[in-house]
Amino acid sequence: MRLPKTLIIGSVLFTLFLLGALVSFLWVPYDIETLNISAKFQPPGGQYWFGTDHCGRDIFSMVMIGARTSIAVAVVAVGIGIVVGVPLGLTAAARRGSILDELIMRGNDLVFAFPSLVIAILITAVFGPSALNAIIAIGIFNIPVFARISRGAALSIWTLDYVLSAQVAGKGAWRISVEHILPNIANLLIVQGTIQFSLGILAEAALSYIGLGAQPPTPSWGRMLADSQTMISFAPHLALFPGLAIVFTVLGLNLMGDGLRDVLDPRLRRSRQ
Amino acid sequence: MTLLSVENLNLSIGGTPILRDLSFKMYEGQFFGVVGESGSGKSMTALSLMQLAPQGAQISGAAHFGAEDLLALPEKAMCALRGQDIGMIFQEPMTALNPVKTIGDQVAETLIVHRRTSRAEAVKIARERLNRVGLPADRFPPDLYPHELSGGQRQRVVIALAIALRPKLLIADEPTTALDVTTQAQILALLRSLVKDDGMACMLITHDLAVVAGLADHVAIMKSGEIVEAGKTTDIFSRMKHPYTKQLLAASSHVPDRATQVTQTPLLEVRSALRTYALPRTSLFGKPPVLAAVNKVSFTLKNGESLGLVGESGCGKSTLTRAILGLDALQSGEIKIDGQTVQAGRRMDRDQRRKMQVVFQDPFGSFNPRHKVARLVAEPFFAMANPPNGTAKTAAVAQALISVGLKPDDTDKYIHEFSGGQRQRIAIARALIIKPSLIILDEAVSALDVSIRAQILDLLAELSEKFALSYLFISHDLSVVRAITDRVLVMKSGEIVESGPTQTVFDNPAHAYTKQLIAATPQLPDN
Hints:
The structure holds two protein chains of two kinds. Chain A is mainly alpha-helical. Chain A has helices at residues 5-23, 59-94, 99-113, 116-127, 131-158, 161-168, 173-209, 221-228, 237-264, 266-272. The longest helix of chain A has 37 residues, at 173-209. Chain A is elongated and about 75 Å long. Chain A starts with a helix and ends with a helix. In chain A, 44% of the residues are buried. Chain B has helices at 42-49, 75-81, 103-115, 119-132, 151-162, 181-198, 209-215, 233-238, 243-252, 317-324, 350-353, 373-378, 390-403, 420-432, 450-467, 478-484, 502-507, 512-520, and strands at 2-13, 16-27, 31-35, 57-65, 68-69, 86-89, 169-173, 201-206, 218-223, 226-232, 266-278, 290-302, 306-310, 332-337, 340-341, 356-359, 438-442, 470-475, 487-492, 495-501. Chain B is α/β, with parallel strands linked by helices. Chain B is 34% helix and 26% strand. Chains A and B meet through helix 6 and helix 7 of A and strand 16 of B.
């Protein structure tokens, strides 16, 4: 089977950043915790690939380590969304039409109704800015996304005959949800997962940009952008490289999501040929 | 007069031949029946005449339609021809209509697109066409939406769409397969009047020999992309030559050999079962109206008996099935299996569950596509207190597969690797594995081709004897019920209107509705 181009390009882009993040644990070109003022504002070139900042730190190394923060925040945030949201959605679908269904889904509507970033700012403002609080804030807003998707997809599976025959075998709603419903909606969840992943990276960058995300000295793409703000007129590379890192990671994840959907959804696969 | 003359039509997709050397003629004012099982190329023939065959199909041959060759016309000329000179009716009236447009608009739209008539004129003609198909203005105003109509009425709208421009040729692809028998009879009568009174030619594609026997002037029998036998309908049915035609006819009226061993002990007793649903409120303060889906139904199924339950869609068959299986509770009344009352829902005990199993209609939706056969077939073991494990489980699965005529090494396959008939065998294996006393067959053979259906009926008869099984055979297809049941119940609007030994009920129906059902069922000529 031929894989769609979007999936290939998206995976390559994302893998590049994932590799950068993983390699940074073992090796980076320059230590970013030692300041080298004599080498400040070096332009991108052979010695410093992405140049250096106002403290003489290597921007390439910082982008590598920053990827760590971004990816970790996004992974955990999407994880919270899936771990809490999917069971909620499955429960609502299993008890469709009941008070429980209404409670779960209206609760989700409530969370959905708030502008997510504003609430994230509120949470970090109350509990103090840190990467952990950013994760929780972003994670909470992933819950209704996954709950809605799981409920909608599960409802259509619940009408199928194999679910009925599992009921005839005496299986309860919870067992049927795990054995029959979940494997059949997994493809949707994977696709949505990649999309939410990219939104998580954007949200982390936004929170760090306003100083509510990861705290110094932990590098973060969002904070690198914020730091470079005042120097952008004479050292544009300070903003350019973390900015590009955000753009390409998010683009890669979105392309990957589109490609995965094409591969996993047989109806779209047929129309593509 | 010859309207369409097809010569040596060949079609292949990616080098695989789909249609081989088809040649036939169609005449004005006549029906041309195309009969065959799934995959025989019937629908593909129709699609290639409309140049709607899938992309990448290679077509050769000629199809003379007046002065034109349908297979050689450029797409633009073909667009003008479709709808204008050739109309098409599809199987599924639910999806053939646009749900967000009124029926009047949908019919009028075709006229506006093709004839560039004014809107007022188009609406007027649309009204005429709707009257023509039996949807009179006083009961069916043009501003109705498809969901406000029944299946049969929708199919009438689809036909009105197809004849909007008075095409010379009408292609009907399984036009009544999705409909109840009485509705089917009405739609076939409508098609007959369109062809005989208005002089259209109609290509009637169907898997049902009986439908063709009563309607078509000429018939072609197709198998694997070839016409194996063709000719006048009366000739074909009186002296068929090709073995496949004979086989098809034999399968259509197949009656399995059954050694009935009915005992007098009741297995399933249903006593004044009542199940109602509240309908949407009609007024703000009044009570919502109530629909009795199953209204005080009582019957007994004896050990070893095969009991038929016949009725059209919406008569309450499915609701009754769910109640018997203990999936939904009754409002009043009682259902007993082996003398014990069935407790619906979670309280239903395992011993009761393992006495009943069910086989559904759709061989594609009955299985979780992500599980392998071993796991699928073993699922009912969940209803047992001490299910077999390890090798005992494997052996039980293998045994169940063997008894339905499959191989034990099929256990490692996924369900998509099997054909429709094989899937239905797996469904039966799944029902058999915990050795139930009663199997409910919910339209279990309705979606199968006639030859496969005959095999499954034989299998059911054999298994019933071997394992002393009782069947509750639910179907809208009277010929199948007649072939496999000892006794039959006729259900209408939630009530059982007639019951008795199958032979007696079918030969001397007492209730008006039973008579109507039997009269509406297409018959194969006797010989």
